[in-house]
């Protein structure tokens, strides 16, 4: 397949949402880049140029050096039109500025506000609620009578309920949050997005802001024991966070903790269906679940990229990168790197070691990694012992995206106890 693929076309795949909906096409492109041009300049129509970084070692090196490679101003790949709109919003003080967009020293201070809520003690406090939700969703699978769209009916709901419980939001608001997070992350997918123009997509963001500004006011008036109160009442440099920074914090928690985990849960089930020997191995030996969870995370790699911008002229693997140029860190590529993973295209529930970069690396390392692992394990701990059989009941479909995604439909037929 890759014989006819040029390096130029392989680079373009990284800026093409439809390439991510076709794993074969994506991985043919990434494998070629890793082998022949691991630091490759991409000039895609409609996008500002960037360097595609596809090797595991290079991505770690760049993330480790957070003084040379900054998250601002180009944190994610978006179209040149969207980059411009965001620059205008920055000037007006209206930009979404979350942890992933910030650099030190501000990043360190702001990350500390939420960090306690993701430490082992807080996670232990969440375990009972997560187990209860996992049981509810497996029960729901049973109620659905042996056939469902596992993504739309199970996997997108369960992690959202976990994250909104952690934030402390009322259950009556959960459907609205589901719609907003799907629109925000599905903005490149025709089925999920709200509208085509950047302005229509910005409206999703503004609706988030309205909702969260009301939440900030409520938690400042009546603080409660939840993450939303910790964010609303945080003191930085002697004062509270601005409304935009507070709302941005909620947005990153609500969105980062949602589609990522649901994509891993559904992609994990798909991998188990495609590899029945691994499904039975895991059912027979539940002690493998922690390793299987990380293998699902590596396999799916729901976050497709983050970007960094060089603060000074430098070199990566001997290729000169000028001050102000951007690099795109391709996590799906790092997680299939032949130099790091033995037989990287094999799904192995006992893979050990598994040094995947799906949670990133360095100062921005995913704040919710322990929570994500807990959620995935809780669902499979409940599901696997009750599962007699499972098979595809239709064609799985993936989200068109260059940022966060995975399966959007997984029709399955199963027998559950
Ligand atoms: C399988 C699920 C998940 C994956 C694959 C994932 C992946 C990532 C990645 C790649 C980053 C950026 C890391 C970097 O730049 O080095 C990140 C950051 C982050 N994630 Fe996750 N994530 C997941 C689940 C969660 C959950 C459940 C939460 C809970 C709220 C969460 C919250 C965050 C936050 C707040 C950040 C920003 C950290 C920072 O910039 O300091 N994530 N995640």
Could you explain the architecture of this structure?
By secondary structure, the protein is α+β, with helices and mostly antiparallel strands. The protein has a single domain, classed as Cytochrome P450 (Cytochrome p450, Orthogonal Bundle). The chain has 17 helices and 12 strands. The strands form 4 sheets. It has a 5-stranded mixed β-sheet with strand order 1-2-8-5-3, sandwiched between helices. Helix 13 crosses helix 15 (289-300) and helix 13 runs parallel beside helix 17 (369-386). The protein is globular and about 60 Å long. The N and C termini lie far apart (43 Å). Protoporphyrin IX containing FE binds at residues 63, 99-100, 111, 163, 252-253, 256-257, 260-261, 264, 297, 302-303, 306, 358-362, 364-368, 371-372.
Strand order of the largest sheet: 1-2-8-5-3
Classify the beta-strand content into a percent band: 5-15%
- Looking at the structure, the CATH topology is Cytochrome p450
Low-confidence stretches: none
Proportion of helical residues: 40-55%
Q: Tell me the series of helices and strands, N- to C-terminal.
A: HHEEHEHHHEHHHHHHHHHEEEEHHEEEE
Average pLDDT metric: 93
* CATH homologous group name: Cytochrome P450
Largest sheet: 5 strands, mixed
Outline: globular
Q: Name every ligand kind in the structure.
A: protoporphyrin IX containing FE
CATH architecture title? Orthogonal Bundle
Q: Based on helices, strands and strand pairing, what is the structural class?
A: alpha+beta
Number of separate strands? 12
Give the class-level CATH name.
Answer: Mainly Alpha
Radius of gyration: 21 Å
C-alpha termini separation: 43 Å
Number of helices: 17
